[in-house]
Design a protein that fits this description.
Elements: E1 6-13, E2 17-20, H1 21-27, H2 32-36, E3 43-46, H3 53-67, E4 75-81, H4 92-99, E5 107-111, H5 117-130, E6 138-147, E7 160-169, E8 175-177, E9 183-186, E10 192-193, E11 202-203, H6 205-229, E12 246-249, H7 255-271, H8 280-287, H9 290-296, H10 302-307, H11 314-330, E13 334-341, E14 345-353, H12 357-364, H13 366-371, E15 374-376, H14 378-385, E16 402-408, E17 411-416
Parallel strand pairs: 2-15, 4-5, 4-6, 12-13
Antiparallel strand pairs: 1-7, 1-8, 2-3, 6-7, 8-14, 9-14, 10-11, 13-14, 16-17
Helix pairs in contact: 3-4, 6-7, 7-8, 11-12
Length: about 425
Amino acid sequence: MKKQVGIEALAIAVPRRFVDIEELAKARGVDPAKYTSGLGAKEMAVADPGEDSVSLAASAAARLIQQQNVDVSRVGMLVVGTETGVDHSKAVASHVQGLLKLPRSMRTFDAQHACYGGTAGLMAAAEWIASGAGAGRSAIVVCSDIARYGLNTAGEPTQGAGAVALLVSEQPDLLALDIGLNGVCTVDVYDFWRPLGRREAVVDGHYSINCYLDALSGAYRGWRERALAHEVVRWGDTLPSEQLARIIYHVPFCKMARKAHTQLRQVDLEDSPSGRELTPEAREAAAKSNASYDAQVASSLTLNARVGNVYTASMYLALAGLLHSEGTALAGKRVGLLSYGSGSCSEFYSATVGANAAARMAKADVEGVLARRERVSVAEYERIMNLPYEAPEAITPAPGEFRLKEIRDFRRTYVAG
């Protein structure tokens, strides 16, 4: 019997404060519908200087270990996917290993490729386990990032922060990956980047959306070719993509998932023997099906709408939202996942939801994590955004969480709650 490998459990961590997106819109003199309907946003996480990619990653990993009763002596790999690391040489993963006092006999490293880094880490861990090199051990993959564009910028309402920690093992209670069916697409483009020394990213917004959609097309076609060959999907009365129970997309903002889904359906319709008989206008209309979007995508976006952009963690926050709301209904069903990182690399893969997904998600307490946040005014949000990054405020972290305490001689010190 072929070894099953995938995600056994997950946990999330978010900043302790958030701002209401309608209040932000009004403060900027913008019709709130531009943010709520146009972007699909409701709330936006506000990270202060004490909440960096290390503290968020460590908090998420600690919560995963505690909530899911993880035997850390059986963890042989720790990977952090991030594009907002704290040092050019010292890995975020090394900080997390030390803060959580994890075993020394483990492989630790960071994976950076814009928003794709977390998926790169997941695939490295899954293939390490599937190959037998892990010798029965599990891996922890953490996606941790802070999306920052600055006050009064075009990207301001698409900021956010948080982390998602994944336990990867031979007991895929959440998701059993279809190892080897992955489709990938990489292209050298300048759609989004963050030059050394900058806290804020540089983005060519419209171009980046086009790059995302182009890379999605290539990655999905690669997956579909392999899935058809293995009879996971087939051409017939329904499109191959319609044979997936749900599809989870990278979510820089929630409305992007609708654009992505339309593009994926367009690819199927362009390539389908029956779809080629349609006019381009008819294919476009079919691709924009609201029914398909509502059935396959909408339920995955609840958490993203309340947290905002989390770069590497965005797709995995969507996964958490989907399994939190539909874990029981989706047990035994196959879903598709699309990861995109600017620069660019995209990967489409599929997985089957585990029978114990709902029970695992209940332990993750995602609603509780969000409920414990503090809503702040726009004025307080602006004050936090103007704080110097090297001087975090003296705030005691909640039990089980971590904060940056100080930076002295370029060395970072963290405190546990």
